[in-house]
From TrEMBL:
PANTHER family: NAD(P)-BINDING ROSSMANN-FOLD SUPERFAMILY PROTEIN, SHORT-CHAIN DEHYDROGENASE/REDUCTASE. It comes from the Bacteria. Signal peptide: none annotated. Gene3D superfamilies: NAD(P)-binding Rossmann-like Domain. One of its GO terms (cellular component) is cytoplasm. InterPro entries: Fungal_SecMetab_SDRs, NAD(P)-bd_dom_sf, SDR_fam. SUPFAM superfamilies: NAD(P)-binding Rossmann-fold domains. This is Cell-cell signaling protein. GO terms for molecular function: oxidoreductase activity.
Length: 251
């Protein structure tokens, strides 16, 4: 039933931006595999509305020996490999536990730094390792990792947010490094990092008081922009760090 539809895999499909991406890409007529660590009523409603276009896989590729990898393999064997993969998962804070981005050196802790690296860096590594064994040399595919402007070393003028900045800078380095390997192995592929802009989700909620209204974007608007960037990517763009308007950002 998915013959002829472009296949898209969205990781973190239950987050504010991931859910908007899932909804927007489904509305374009694409077939979506939505990955999430936890399902939700909103995802279930999308599944009902787009029963012929959407498959949901609940689990976490970062967990060793989980059932997530076999489930995804079965989905892709049945319906075809994803032409696009988007990693929309991430961590900035854990408000219920009081863990927030650090403003000072003294606030850095090993557990919170490790959690940021695990969520913001290793998640894309785990996805890439899974993708790496799916494709043949001649296959064209795109892998977009949602990064952040604060991961730019050159653009860091304010300081603070140590763990988040470091984890996103590490993600950017991973994207650049992997792009070099994949240029040799998959010359038709493209992997890129993207700054989607500050989006009105629970991720940014504690910090929105300091953001100008014209710089805070709705999830739908950010999803539309990400979709436009994905459509425009070519192998020549591999290894780039992009703004939501497709311009190149400094490392």
């Amino acid at each position: 039933m998915f013959i002829g539809k472009k296949k898209v895999w969205i990781v973190g499909a239950n987050g504010g931006l991931g859910l908007a991406l899932t909804r927007h890409i489904l509305a374009q007529g694409y077939q979506v595999t939505a990955s999430t660590r936890r399902s939700s009523m909103a995802l279930q409603q999308l599944q009902t509305s787009y029963s012929g276009q959407m498959t949901t896989v609940v689990g976490d590729l970062r967990q060793q020996n989980s059932e997530t990898s076999p489930q995804l393999t079965a989905v892709f064997e049945q319906y075809g490999l994803p032409a696009w993969t988007i990693n929309a998962s991430g961590l900035l804070h854990s408000a219920p536990s009081g863990r927030m981005p650090e403003k000072r050196l003294s606030q850095i802790s090993e557990p919170f730094l490790a959690d940021n690296i695990h969520a913001n860096t290793y998640s894309s590594i785990a996805i890439a390792q899974f993708l790496d064994r799916l494709y043949k040399r001649e296959d064209p595919f795109r892998f977009l990792c949602l990064s952040a402007m604060v991961g730019s070393i050159a653009d860091n003028h304010a300081g603070g947010w140590y763990s988040y900045r470091m984890s996103k800078a590490a993600l950017n380095m991973f994207v650049k490094t992997l792009s070099i390997e994949w240029q040799r192995r998959f010359p038709q592929a493209c992997i890129a990092a993207l700054h989607p802009g500050t989006t009105d989700t629970s991720l940014s909620a504690p910090f929105q008081h300091s953001i100008r209204s014209d710089k805070l974007y709705s999830p739908q608007r950010s999803a539309e922009r990400i979709f436009r960037v994905l459509r425009s990517l070519t192998p020549a763009d591999t290894g780039k760090f992009l703004h939501w308007d497709s311009t190149t950002l400094p490392w």
